[in-house]
Specification:
homodimer; 262 residues; N-(1-d-carboxylethyl)-l-norvaline Dehydrogenase, domain 2; 10 helices
Chain lengths: 262, 262
């Protein structure tokens, strides 16, 4: 087990975020004393991953923890909280769209540490570059949470619940929806026996462009030119992939509407 | 004017692609002897950019060119071709969804050089990394075009018209539609007074992920979990931005459908 001098921490949940947050906290000197997950396989895998004792029994959570970090889906968090029986512990969750006062009934010290990032177990990420939004139930806990967050990230902001929900929603467009467009491209190429690799330089350049200019200035392509011929040809070509045909039509129309109204 | 020993080349069009292709050709030793654009301002700007004589008069095109490269929109290309009066010259266009035989009536040597990339005048791009699809009207011209393309790019493939149209369509999803999702995120943050910058690490990570795994494996977020609560909250939050609300609902449903059918 890795030792450290920082707060004694329990991580609840063994999903993608836990998988990255655990090592980032250990690197920053936190003593992760236990991890919990509902299923044995994920608890054990995560425990081994960060070399920490694991449990699948919520009654076995160690009582001497200073900090409990919940890395759960919204529904799992709400289902689990009533079963947790720890006193005087600082509880934080990591969800974009769950209020901090979900903890109100269970502890007097609580907060939120929401990383604006997409995590995948198999990809390393430098947590220091991850923007982290924090919120706590009072100024003292906010300071405490800020100092925790700043130990793992160089990009920490205090963001209230309403604004955190906005960040979360914008992130869904920028990440999940963007990835779905990659998927359409992947499936279309795959459908015709081509390799997705040929698009990778274009994908990276499209992302890099919006580091330097607004997405509005960066927009190119037939929809922004309202080139009806091409739009029509592509819609026909997608006849046997109706789901992507719908997306093509819908998103093209939205791009055109935005250009027209300017 | 920059001299070179390669083919004497005229570039027709002074848009985003010309702006990048011109310098890439010059760097590879091509002698660009003239540029043409319909408007004086764009012809002059581009001519100055690559230090080459410009014209806005299609009758003034130099007759000793070996190669004429059309960097025009599809409609502009079709409108301009009947006016061009050059003989025995290799004509190529750069469009994703225009057949090569658009040149048939005007020359016996022709082809297509289609770069699978998004170009913006103000951003430098290393053309060597740009995937280039080529096609020509016979084997001899294909070899000629291949050697031209390989002088500027390390990633050249011979792709027929049907397949080039597929590449183009996939590129629209991966680039134009992706950028429209960035734009939604930008507008939503802007609407509430937040800076788009906070999403940049997430945008880069989302793009980098699909260099290593398929977009299907990379997908995260509430739509893929079918978290109806969050979807509903976000739809309500977007009530005063109906265009983005429509996109949110439509794309979320498409993500969910894909996850459900697997």
């Amino acid at each position: 087990m890795k030792k450290g001098k920082g707060p004694k921490t329990i991580i609840i949940g063994a999903g993608k975020l836990a998988w990255h947050l655990g090592p980032a906290l250990q690197k920053a000197g936190f003593r992760i004393i236990q991890v919990y997950s509902r299923t044995l396989s994920s608890a054990a895998a995560f425990g081994l991953h960060i070399d920490v004792p694991w449990t699948t029994d919520v009654n076995m959570l160690k009582e001497d923890a200073d900090l409990v970090i919940f890395c759960l889906t919204d529904r799992a968090l709400e289902a689990l909280l009533p079963q947790i029986n720890l006193k005087d512990v600082f509880m934080i969750h990591t969800a974009g769209s769950v209020p901090s006062n979900v903890f109100e009934k269970w502890t007097s010290d609580f907060g939120v540490l929401y990383p604006l990032m997409t995590f995948t177990k198999t990809r390393a990420i430098d947590f220091r570059t991850v923007p982290v939004c924090i919120e706590a139930n009072n100024k003292e806990n906010e300071d405490r949470l800020k100092s925790i967050a700043e130990k793992i990230s160089d990009n920490v902001s205090a963001v209230n619940f309403e604004n955190r929900k906005i960040m979360h929603m914008a992130a869904i467009f920028a990440c999940n929806f963007t990835n779905h467009m990659y998927r359409a491209a992947y499936d279309i190429l795959h459908h015709y026996g081509f390799d997705f690799g040929i698009l990778k330089p274009l994908i990276m350049e499209t992302a890099r462009k919006v580091l330097e200019m607004s997405p509005h200035e960066a927009q190119t392509g037939p929809a922004s030119r309202h080139d009806k011929n091409i739009l029509c040809v592509h819609q026909l070509m997608l006849q046997d992939q109706p789901e992507w045909q719908k997306i093509y039509t819908f998103v093209s129309e939205s791009i055109y509407q935005h250009f027209q109204s300017e």
